[in-house]
């Protein structure tokens, strides 16, 4: 890449970061909401009591990884599609193709900004969970980071696929919402994956966020995440990325 193109791409990255920082809704839902939800749940007294059915763990212990995944889902399905489809509808992507900045640079900037914000949100969830409710830190930090990065990649790839198959902003909103609620269910927002009935729990771990929830939980308990769960995350990322590349249109 030439120096001019590199400088232009960095300028796009800075611009997208500033635009994201100026959008209160995105800041709240991606960065703040997962921690707010986890805090509200942690204030429920029964959620802070050890449960023999959970192996002596507390419900709030299970919801910290869930809140981490929720940040990734918000970034991929609620923040990315409206922005990119809006750029396409307004012809911004088409006009970029005539400048030193290629549309791919804008997509890369979106992925970088949203990925970084989601990971910052994950750190905030873990920190508040530890400070406010005594939730244990991951016993296997390297495995936790690996599972988190793979889950973030899968979430952003899913968001990119929604952008690819949506011709308009309204379509992106509708498709994103249709995918959003099943994603939250498989991540364990309503019922933690660890407490689901056996067959349902097994099936859910074949989804990206179910596998992510199981992998993060294993790392928290001090075990290396199952290679099966990590493999599911990697395969979903590859498949979703391939679909996004195949169907994405700049105009």
Automatic annotation (TrEMBL):
Principal localisation: membrane
Pfam families named in the record: ABC2_membrane
Keyword Transmembrane: yes
Keywords: Antibiotic resistance, Cell membrane, Membrane, Transmembrane, Transmembrane helix, Transport
One example GO MF annotation: ABC-type transporter activity
Bilayer disposition of the protein: Multi-pass membrane protein
GO BP: response to antibiotic
Residues in ABC transmembrane type-2 domain copies: 25-251
Source superkingdom: Bacteria
A Gene Ontology cellular-component term: ATP-binding cassette (ABC) transporter complex
Cross-referenced InterPro entries: ABC-2_transporter, ABC2_TM, ABC2_TM_bact-type, ABC_2_transport
Cellular compartment(s): Cell membrane; Membrane
Keyword Nucleotidyltransferase tagged: no
Chain ranges passing through the membrane: 26-47, 62-84, 105-129, 141-162, 174-193, 227-248
Family of this protein: Belongs to the ABC-2 integral membrane protein family.
Name of the protein: Transport permease protein
Species for this entry: Streptomyces liangshanensis
């Amino acid at each position: 890449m030439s120096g001019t193109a590199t400088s232009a791409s960095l300028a796009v990255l800075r611009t997208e970061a500033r635009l994201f920082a100026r959008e209160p809704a995105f800041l709240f839902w991606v960065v703040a909401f997962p921690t707010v939800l986890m805090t509200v749940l942690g204030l429920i007294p029964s959620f802070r009591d050890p449960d023999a059915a959970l192996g002596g763990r507390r419900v709030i212990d299970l919801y910290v990884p869930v809140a981490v995944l929720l940040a990734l889902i918000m970034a991929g399905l609620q923040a990315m599609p409206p922005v990119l489809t809006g750029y396409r509808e307004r012809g911004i992507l088409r006009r970029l193709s005539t400048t030193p900045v290629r549309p791919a640079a804008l997509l890369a900037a979106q992925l970088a900004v949203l990925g970084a914000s989601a990971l910052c949100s994950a750190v905030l969830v873990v920190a508040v969970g530890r400070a406010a409710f005594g939730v244990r830190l991951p016993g296997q930090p390297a495995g936790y980071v690996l599972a988190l990065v793979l889950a973030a990649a899968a979430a952003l790839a899913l968001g990119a696929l929604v952008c690819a198959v949506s011709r308009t902003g309204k379509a992106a909103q509708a498709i994103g919402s249709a995918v959003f609620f099943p994603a939250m269910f498989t991540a364990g927002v309503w019922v933690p994956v660890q407490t689901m009935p056996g067959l349902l729990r097994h099936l859910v771990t074949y989804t990206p966020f179910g596998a992510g929830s199981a992998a993060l939980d294993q790392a928290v308990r001090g075990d290396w995440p199952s290679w099966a769960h990590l493999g599911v995350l990697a395969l979903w990322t590859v498949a979703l990325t391939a679909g996004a590349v195949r169907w994405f249109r700049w105009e």
